[in-house]
Design brief:
The complex is a heterodimer of chains A (118) and B (105). Chain A is an all-beta fold. Chain A is built from no helices and 11 strands. Classes of the chains: A mainly beta (118), B mainly beta (105). The interface between A and B is medium-sized, with 22 and 25 residues.
């Protein structure tokens, strides 16, 4: 059974930092691009960042460039999102997801809530 | 940056066909995926690569993509299909549509 389990969310003050983790199991993690997708309360889905199988390529949405860093550890079947200089607008549920053929997101975690207080 | 546009809401009667559209410049040249999300739950992939149904997705879900518009079609819509639906494509970066709330009434 495929599982993606996020952790690390919580309440942080504006300007603070958090590190999200996503532990994967049930599939060949090292063969997949991985993404972080977020959803602000009552809003739609927003892609945040992704990382290639071997970590050699990373992409970010403009609004988080320079503040967020995606990384992965294939030995631990895990992907991470380091979030610095957090803003109220970053408040959202953050999901990790695996990218399959055609850049579709086959598997999703349950999400972890990040709340940034001003 | 690339944008995908969806209608905010679509209504359908039980047993009828629901169509949710997603528009974008030359969208037919790209692969489009569709996700279903129910309140408090994570999204579920229902259509990938324009028209492929993942394992476990009912046959009543189908997709098409041509020109500037992709369409998710739900035939014989059931009450359980009431949810938010999002389209998604890739244009140098991943892009999601704004979402469509499907109401079955």
């Amino acid at each position: 059974e495929v599982q993606l389990v996020e952790s690390g969310g919580g309440l942080v003050q504006s300007g603070g930092s958090l590190r999200l983790s996503c532990a994967a199991s049930g599939f060949t993690f090292r063969s997949y691009w991985m993404s972080w997708v977020r959803q602000a309360p009552g809003k739609g889905l927003e892609w945040v960042a992704n990382i290639k199988h071997d970590g050699s390529e990373k992409n970010y949405v403009d609004s988080v460039k320079g503040r967020f860093t995606i990384s992965r550890d294939n030995a631990k079947n895990s992907v991470y999102l380091q979030m610095n200089s957090l803003r109220a607008g970053d408040t959202a549920v953050y999901y990790c997801a695996s990218e399959g053929l055609g850049s579709s997101f086959e598997y999703w975690g349950q999400g972890t809530l990040v709340t940034v207080s001003s | 940056s690339y944008e995908l546009t969806q209608p905010p809401s679509v209504s359908v009667s039980p047993g009828q066909t629901a169509s949710v559209t997603c528009s974008g410049d030359k969208l037919g040249d790209k692969y489009v995926s569709w996700y279903q999300q129910k309140p408090g739950q994570s999204p579920i992939l229902v259509i990938s690569q324009n028209k492929k149904r993942p394992s476990g997705i009912p046959e009543r879900f189908s997709g098409s993509n041509s020109g500037n518009t992709a369409t998710l079609t739900i035939s014989g819509t059931q009450a359980m299909d009431e949810a938010d639906y999002y389209c998604q494509a890739w244009d140098s970066l991943v892009v999601f549509g704004g979402g469509t709330k499907l109401t079955v009434l």
